[in-house]
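User: Please fill in residues for this 93-position structure.
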């Protein structure tokens, strides 16, 4: 049986974003060791390059294969340009 973890709407940069919640979730994912993690978008709130750089540092702590999908907040302010290469691999885009 394949085990997946699905998450979305991280919204890094939002006033409601809590780094401690994200770090706790990352710890859970690494302890659970699913076959893959799927994130269906909204990594950032404003799609700013600085948000992508910071959230990618956290996401890279996940030791599980990931599939990342662009969300509507990720496409704001030409965010797709920043997302590609930072969180989404060339073959996933």
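Assistant: Residues filled in for all 93 positions:
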């Amino acid at each position: 049986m394949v085990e997946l973890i699905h998450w979305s709407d991280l919204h890094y940069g939002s006033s409601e974003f809590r780094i401690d919640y994200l770090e706790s979730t990352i710890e859970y994912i690494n302890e659970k060791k699913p076959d893959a993690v799927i994130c269906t978008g909204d990594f950032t709130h404003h799609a700013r390059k600085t948000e992508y750089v910071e959230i990618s540092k956290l996401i890279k702590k996940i030791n599980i294969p990931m599939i990342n999908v662009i969300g509507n907040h990720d496409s704001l302010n030409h965010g797709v340009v920043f997302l590609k290469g930072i969180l989404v691999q060339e073959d996933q885009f």
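For context: The mean pLDDT is 84.
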